[in-house]
Structure formats: structure tokens, C-alpha cells
Amino acid sequence: MATVVILLGGPGAGKGTQAVRLGEKLGLAHISTGDLFRENLKNDTPLGRQAREFMDSGRLVPDSLVIEMLFDRVAAPDCANGYVLDGFPRTEPQALALEAALGDLKPRVLNLEVADEVIVQRASGRRLCRGCSAIWHATFNAPSKAGVCDTCGGELYQREDDQEEVVQERLNVYHAQTAPLVEFYSARGLLVGVDGERSPSEVNESLVAALAAGPVETN
User: In the chain, what are the domains?
Assistant: First the structure.
């Protein structure tokens, strides 16, 4: 039976990085629902055209359509062994829709536990190079000269999404909409929490160990 892994965690907790690493290490497809959405729109697929109709009229794309996109994707051969979901579900209605679509297949849910203040520090200190796209950090990986990339000498800049007030607003949305999924999956005996404040390699080792340990037993 295929393995379905759901990664939870706040914005900037490292879900994208860990989803890629898990996929490579375990032979599972990495599915970013954001990328999936963009791919359907770019390729003008029937599902993408349906989504565009909602977007053009200012309406939210319904969860049922997002689920349809997802299951169209996971029917591909590279998902035969399973897949890692990055960015879905984000709300309890989405989780319920996914649960119904999966049927008897129970996902493994891993929650990257990172304090809000750590997320803000990680994001607000991040700088990108305009020349080579290298990533630096004011605290954890500072360049030799402030504002200048060590690799190519290019100018470093801060993305708008990394500004402290923007990160805080994203965290507010996360706590209102997505954080309740921790209790949702915990109540089903499917959730394992992992300390996400360590190095990426250490976090990855813990995630792999949690999956190897098998499903959590419910009382």
C-alpha cells in the first residue's frame, strides 16, 4: 500500500526543504500543492481552466477542485509508492475532503514544531543575492560584507515575504486556519511531533525515524 505523508508546521518551519529530502530518501514523490496549482494553470489543463474561472470571478477555488487536481497528479507512475504532501491540507474542511478521498488509506502526519519567534528570526534575517540567488542570513550565515554576496559579489536583498510584519501576519493566518489540524490529526492517532528548531539534517533524521516507527496507536 502507498505511503502518504503530510507535513504540518508554520510558515518558514522548513516543510518545503524537508518534503524534498524525505521524498529523495524514501523514494516518494514530493507534491507541492502550490506548484501543482501553477502547473495546471500554466498548461491550461481542464482542471486549470475550471480553477481559472473561479479566480477570474474573484471566488475561492473550492476544495473539491483542489482535491481533484491532487488525485489527478497522484495517479502518475512516480506516485506508485506514495507521496509527500507539502502545503495541503491547510484547513479542517480540506483535511476532511482529503480523508474522504483517501478512504481506508491513513496518512502519516508529521508536525514540524518551531516557535513563532524562531520563525520570525529565520525569515526576517534571510537575504537573497540578485546575481546568483544564493541565500544568506544576517545571524546564521552572514556574508563577509553586509549586503554583498560572498559568492558572486552581487547585491543582497530582503524579499517582501520575509519582512517581519509580513511573516507575523502569515503566522496569524496559520494559527487561525492550519494549526487546528494538529489536534485534528492527533485525535485520529496519526500525528507525530518533531522538533524543527535543529539543523535540517537532524530534523530529517527525526522525520525518517518517526515514519519508520510505524503508525501511532489510538487508545
Answer: 3-115+178-212 (3.40.50.300)
Is residue 90 flagged as an active site residue? yes
**170 noted as active-site residue:** yes
Neighbour tally for 117: CB within 10 Å = 9
What is the bridge-based pairing of β-strands 126-129 and 29-32?
unpaired
Convert the pLDDT of each residue in 129-155 to its tens digit: 999 999 999 988 999 999 999 999 999
Q: Tell me whether strands 29-32 and 82-86 are parallel, antiparallel or unpaired.
A: parallel
Catalytic residue among 21, 108, 126, 127: 126
Instruction: Please report which residue ranges of 74-199 form alpha helices under DSSP H.
Output: 92-102, 116-124, 164-177, 180-187
How many C-beta atoms surround the C-beta of residue 69 within 10 A? 21
- The pTM of the full predicted model, rounded to 2 decimals, is 0.84
Q: Is 15 a catalytic residue?
A: yes
Q: Which three cell numbers stand for residue 147?
A: 549586503
